[in-house]
Structures are given as structure tokens and as C-alpha cells.
Amino acid sequence: MRTPHRPPVIDMRGVGKVFVAGALELPVLTDIHLTVHEGEFVAIAGPSGCGKTTLLSLMGLLDTPTHGHMRFLGEPVVAAGRRQRALLRNAHVGFVFQAFNLVADMSVAANVALPLAFRKGIGRRERDERVAAALASVGMSHRMRHFPGQLSGGQQQRVAVARAIVGEPAVILADEPTGNLDLENGERVMALLGRLNAAGTTLCMVTHDDRFSAAADRIVRLLDGRVVDEATFQERQREAGSGLDERRAMEALL
Amino acid sequence: MSPHHGFIAAGTATLALATAMFFATFTLVDAILLAPPPFANPAQVVLYGQMPGAAPRRGMSTALYDMVGMPPMLLSRGLAAATTRASASAQGHAALLAVQRVDAGYLPTLGVAPADGVLTFGEDGEDVVVLSWRLWQAWFGGERVAGQAIMVDGRAFPVAGVLPQAFRVFDDVDIFLPLRPVAGGGQGTMANGIAVGRLAPGASASAFGAVVRGIAAAHASALGMPADAVASVGATPIEEAVRGYAAPTLWQFLRASLLVMATACANLANLLLAQGWRRGRETAMRTAFGAPPWRAAMPVACDAAIVGVAGTVAALLLGNLLLGVLRDSLPRYWLPDAGTIRASAHVYVATVGLAVVVTMVAAVVGAWLAGGDRLLREHMGAAGARPHGRVAQRVRGAMVQWQLALATILAAFCAVQFVHASGAWRPPPGMPVEGIALARFHPDAGHFDTVPRIAALANALARDASQRDGASAAGVTTQLPTGPRFVVAFPGIAGAPIEVRLALQTPGVRAAMGLHLLAGRDIDAGDTAGSEPVAVVNEAFIATVQGAGLGTVVEKMSRGLGSRPLRIVGIVANDRAAGDTEATRPAAIVPFAQLPAREFSAYRGLLAYFIVARLGDEAQAVGHDTGASLRRIAPWLVAEPSTMARAWHDAAAGARRDAWQALLLAALATGLATLGFHSALGVQLAARQRDLALAAALGASPWQLCTFGVLRGGAGAVPGIAAGAALVVASPLPWSAPAVATAGAGMLVLCILAALPALHRAAAAEPWRVVREA
């Protein structure tokens, strides 16, 4: 692991989440203990319905745990109010979604600028400079005046990555970022995320694809709402007795 | 309230309000403009004479009527005098009734079928009376009445027959009497009668009008008609004439109601679209599994059906209430009698049909915009797909802004109308209306056929009334500030004639009314027929009439009657006529005894007569028997007792009704616009739910969510309201800055209230949905 001694960005202790629908209670996550350190790349894997997306939404402060303790950048957040969590998300979290979630009637530049539009103290000039830099870093500067409907899926996801990094967040949370992309575009997006992680940005990614989770420092495997395994890719490969070195293959991509 | 209940309520209210307005308006149009008048072959009947200004009513002088005679173009003709009052009694009832004298040819020429008896006045036979349907019902209970007697101005008249319920030509008339020459020259100098003719086959109204105009031109000097008056002589089909007052207003009402229906249709489509989007995922899934388009559209169709049925039922109930309000406020010169106006079967059919069409159009538009394919693209991955194209979005935005502008315009003009009308029920300045007892009467032409006789009656009544218990002052006048208004012309400061209210009075009226004498003296007993003609005028008269001042002589103008000099001997404070919210009109008071015989002959049928007595307080005025003087001096005349306060209240009733109607119209317009704004925001919000969740995930504050989700995209109300206010200011119609500001501010507040639910939902957007529902 690359960052065992760095300070934790996300620290979850005994976290659980129960969805309630009328009289029906559905526990989705149970007793999660998970710490993500600064600069770490954590992949979250597991079968469908195991709670990966719910875990990601708790880590990204999109939702609140039903029980347990959680700190974000050292700050307790379980009892944090809606406003405080919004401020934390805006300042420290970047999101990349499977379906891109670009606003269709806003230009590429306006989409990328969206997190900055919700942040106080950033002038128009600074915002434009940051947007231009973010788009340049994902190779989309030439499409900044276009609208999402005019871009391919891979291009839309690169714009989404630019939106995720424009606010210089401490952590990027990616929910199946390659799920809607073909292999080539998926690899390009993973290369982008890998570069960001290499530059020091913490990365948590939900994925089904072992080829991409191989690049992670750690793979957290969920089953029925519980963490059942937490290991590096090599450790898992050794346990599995496999001779493939996909980690090396991914590093070649980066 | 759940979103679905909210949708049903908003949709039903939208459809009900608009359809109710159409129902009420179309009922009036149907009854007044489309239904045939109660005359046989009405297309062959014409009204002929001189048309003053743009009024559809033509006036006919007896001189011109006689000159025209019976040309070959006419099969028959008839003449009616202007409506006046008479004392009548029968079957234990007694009242001052509206009377019209008509010649033997008038009713047969119109071709009216009697409800009872016959409608003919013999040329030489005994005098008979024809009753209106309303009087027949009220006094005789609708039983056979032909041959029974009714006392009119002290004479017994046998009843010949009863007119049908719907009969009306310009005025509400209780009884019709034969028009025959009377001593004193009643119709001998009549200038504003109603002449009707039945055209021979092949003759047209315009051709006959040209004949009448030619005769008028040939005898212009003998008739005392200037060239412009001759040019206005002609003939108008009776249908066009009797509907002429109502037609422009009613057609405009109908156009407005259709516009409101179109607006409601757009609102409903928006609401259905919003509702469709709320269940977008479900629809998308059905489409994905191969459901045909009609299956995807079924929920929208069901929503539309519920709203259509509920809205139509509510509209018919509301429409009947609205019709009641409108019916009560119809001007009395519109045809037919307001009491006879009911919604006919085809009004119901048309209303229901239109409601169905509006609902179906809204449903089709809503279903198309929220169609399965579009939802499928949106929900199943094509992020570039939108629920509706940019053009459709802009059209909907423009519709909302147009609605808001229209509502602001209506609200501003209604505010002006409300302020204008509400000013009319303020008590007149300088005149306390409480504590004044009144008795209206009408001296009959048989007993009071000359100026000395009418002056003697007025002075006797004034003396008797002032000596009665409790009366501190009393007199007789032909005009009250509450009306009816009688005006004559005086030269204005600029030279052009101006209208001046003219009252004939005995001494004591000013004191009885409590008006302040500012300078000079009152009319007194010394102002007799032989002395110099005098007038007491008000401040407005001094300010507006050429050469007016205390002691000066002014010329009363009169076409055909010659001008008459009057010396101003007193100036009184301004009063203000009920309903008159403009600057106080100039008024002149002249003594009864000094009225020339020629003017009296021309005016007598147009004047109203009142005994006015000042009592201590209102309770005394209510209990005071002011009519006792009349019963003692002329017992055959009927007095209508009242008080000035009640007369003021009644006279202001029209103004109050106008004000409430203005409020009702404003409420309807603003209500629909607000609902439209609400539904547009609903659509916007439904279409942006995912964007809102994204914005929430990216850290937007509640206010930023509102700005991002609701106000963005031109849904703000300010442009429409501002455009409406600008159009009001730019229009040539009267407006006032406070009214425009009030309307604009009111619309803004309503829009903010309408936006609150959407803003609340936007501010409460849940960020986790961005990963769950993307």
C-alpha cells in the first residue's frame, strides 16, 4: 500500500445504513469499518445489490448513516447538518458518475464550472481559469462551448472528470465511471483518474471490473452489506493462486 | 396534499375558472345577440330617425315623422315617445310606473304577439293600456286581465293586453299608453321618439334610410337640423339597433373568454406534462418493454379525464353563479330583459364540448411531450435527450410570460376601475346625506299642463312639506345629486358647449339638502314668471362656463328652443352625483316659475320630481311621511317615499357592482395566471429533478438549488409582469401609477406564493438521488 501512514480522509467506524419504506426496514450496510487515507486509491467491489453505491454515497456525504461513527477530514459528520455536509462536499469532494450526469442545456464549460458556481469567494476570472485548466487536463478544451448532447460517451465522462477536479477536491468518488463506456474510452478515463491519484488526489471507485480495480492500492469487497475482504490486488491474486499481473498491466496504461 | 391531489385541484380549478367564464359569457351572447328578438320577421323591421353620435338608438321628431309619412317602401309604421313616469294603481297596488306612449301602429309594426288580450290601440277608440309581462305578474298574478281597469294619473284605463316576457325596446316599460295629442303639446314637439317601420318586400334598410335622409335634407331648415344632424339620419334594422349597445362589449367578452380558454388549455397541458414526468420512469419502463404509444399515454389520458369531468362539473356550477352576477349588472337598455336570460341547452352543449376539446388538446400535447419515447431516451441513458425541445420550452416560457402580462394588464385596469367605482359611493362633499326624506312623484300632463300650474303645485308641496312636524326645511326639485341626470348646454370657457346639470327648484331645497351657500342668495318667492330669469349655480359652473360670476348673465344654449339669458344670483358649494368620480359637474338651479313654456313642453317627460325635506336624523327621515303633502294636494298622484341616504346607496349600487365585477375579473385573470405559473414551475421542476440532485451533490445551498432548479430557464415572473405594466402605461386607456404598481406588486406576491411549493421541493432536493436515480 502506498499511503498507510498518511492522515485519514474518510474514517468509518461501525457504520450502518437501513432504508425504511413504511413498515419495512431494509438494512443495506452493516457494521462498516473503513478508513481511506490521503492519496490512497481504494476500489470498492462486490456483486450487485451488496451496498457499493450506498457506501459511496455515505463516503461522499450524499447520505447519512443510520448508525455508527464517521469522520471526514477529521471532522465528525454523522450529526452534521445538511448545510454543513453541502459545504464539505463542495470544498473537498469530486464526483464521477456512471451516467455522467451532465446538465444537458448547459455548455461543457458551464457544466465544469458548476461546483465553483456553488462556492463563495471565487470570482469569474478565477473560475474561468480553473475551468480552462480542468478541461485542458482532460483534453477537452476544444469542446468547451459544446453541449453534452454533442459529445460522445467517453468525451462526456472526461468532462465529468474535469468537473470533479475543478474544485481541487481532497477526494474523488467515482461510481462505475467506466460502466457506460467501451473498453477504449474506459481505459482513457481510468488513465485520467490514475494520473490524478498519482498526483496525490485520494480516489475511491466503485467498479465491477477487475482490470480497473487492479490499479487500486486496496480493494474493499462487500457482500450483503458487510466488508468481507480488504486486500491489495496482489494479495488477492496470491490467495487466488493466479499468475496474472494485472497491476503491472494497469501501470503500463498510466 | 400529495402531488397527485395538488395536480387534480390545480387542473380542475384551471379548467373550471376558464370554462365558467366562457359559459357565462356565451349565455349572454346567445340570449342577447344570437336569439331572435320577440318580433315577427324582425329582419323587415327598421328603426329610423336621427342618430346622435355613435349610439345605435335613433331619435325621431314628430315633425320629421309626419314628413316621411308612409312611403311605398313601408308596409306599416309606428311611433313611441320617450319613457316617462306615471302614477298608477290597481288591485290594491299603487306605484310610480315607467310609461311609454305609443301610437296605434307601433306594436303591430314590431309584430309582437300578446301574452294575454290584444296589443292594439284604436285610432279613435277609447284609451286602453297594455301591460308589461312583469307588471301583469306582480299586480294581477298572471291571470286573465283583458278588460280590467288600471288607474293612471287619476284616470281609469281598461287593460287591452299583456306583452310577452322577453319584449323590450331599449327601456324597461311597465305600461304602454296610446300616444295622442294632449293639451300642452306633449308629443307635438317630441324630438326623441322611437320610430319603427316594417319594410315592404324587396325594400332594404339602407334604401329606406336614404329616403328618410333625403326628406330631412329637403326640410332641414324647417326642422332646425344642421348639416351634420341631417347626415346622421337614416334607418337601422331593429335587431342591429336593439343589440347595438350590447354587441361590441359582448363580442369582446366572448373573445376574452376564448383567450382565457386557450390559456387554460396551455396550463392544463403543462400540468399534465408535469404529472407525466413525475411518473416518467414508470412510463419509460413500459415503453422499454414494448408498450404501444397509447399504453404509455394512458396515465395522461386518465389524468385528463379526471380533470376534464371535475373541471366541467365545477365550471357549470361556477358559471351559473357568475351568470347571476353578470345578469344583475346588465345595463337596462340591453335586450332582452335580464330576468329572462337563462343558459339554453345549446349553451350547455357548447360549453361541455369546448371543455372536452380543451381537455383533449391539453392531453394530446401533454402526452406527446411526456411521451414514452422521450422518457425512454431520458431515463435509459441518452443524457443529451430532454423531455421537450428548446423551441417547445421557449414557447411554453413565452406562454407563461404572456399570461402574466395579460393578468397584470387586467389587474391594473381592474384596479383603476375599482378605484374609479369605489369613489362613487363616497358621500358627496359639502352635503350630509343622512336625515333627508324624499318622495318622488310625477305630475300628470292632464292636470299640470302649463308652467304656472306645475309651479303652483311645486310651491304648494314645498310649503306644505316645510310645515310638517320635524321638517326644518323642504322644497321640490327636479334633480338630486343621485340622479336621474338632466343636462343642458352652456358655452364653456373655450367656447365649446359644455354639459350642465339643470334643476328646477322651489325655495327651500338647498337648505333641505344641506348645501352651503357660498355667495349671493337662494332662489326665493320673488323669482316669478314676470321677473328677470335667474339661476343659482355651483362652484364648478363658475369655473367652467364662459363669463360666469356672481351677478353676471350667462346664456343657456338650446338647439331648436333658442338660447336664454340667466343672471347668476347665488353660488352654492359643489355636490357630486353618485357614480360621478370625475371632477364635479357644473350645475345650475332655476325657479319653476321662470321656465319658458316651450322648454317645459320639451323637458316635461324627461324630468323627475322630488319633494325633499330635512329632518333631524336618519331615523326620522325613514319614518317621515313625505308623501302626505302630495296626498293632500294631488291625491291621484302616487309618491315613492325614500331617503337621500337610501337613494345614495341605490345610485351607488351600480358603481359598487362595477367595482366587484372588476375585482372578480382581476381575480379570474390573476388566478389563472398564477395557476399557469405554478404549473410551468411544476414542469420545470419535474424535468430538472436529476439536475437538482446533481447540484445538491455538488454542494449547492438551498437557495442555490432554488435558483438553479426553478428560477433558471426564464421561469421568473418578473419579465411578464414588467411587460404587462409597460403595456398598460403605453396604452391610450386611462391608468394610474398606484394602480399599475398595486397590480404589479400583487402579481409578484401571487407568483411568489405560487412558486413556494416548487421552491420548497427544489430546496429539499436530496443529493443521494444522483447516484440512485441517474
From TrEMBL, chain A:
The keyword Heme does not apply. GO terms for molecular function: ATP binding; ATP hydrolysis activity; transmembrane transporter activity. Signal peptide: none annotated. One of its GO terms (cellular component) is transmembrane transporter complex. CDD domains: ABC_MJ0796_LolCDE_FtsE. This is ABC transporter ATP-binding protein. It holds the Pfam family ABC_tran. Residues 10-249 form the ABC transporter domain. It comes from Luteibacter yeojuensis.
UniProtKB/TrEMBL annotation, chain B:
One of its GO terms (cellular component) is plasma membrane. Residues 13-211 form the MacB-like periplasmic core domain. Its main location: membrane. It holds the Pfam family FtsX. Residues 257-369 form the ABC3 transporter permease C-terminal domain. One of its GO terms (molecular function) is transmembrane transporter activity. The chain crosses the membrane at residues 253-273, 304-326, 346-370, 404-425, 659-680, 735-759. Keywords: Cell membrane, Membrane, Transmembrane, Transmembrane helix. It is a multi-pass membrane protein. InterPro entries: ABC3_permease_C, MacB_PCD, Macrolide_Exporter_MacB. It is found in: Cell membrane. Belongs to the ABC-4 integral membrane protein family. This is Uncharacterized protein. It comes from Luteibacter yeojuensis. The lineage of its organism: Bacteria, Pseudomonadati, Pseudomonadota, Gammaproteobacteria, Lysobacterales.
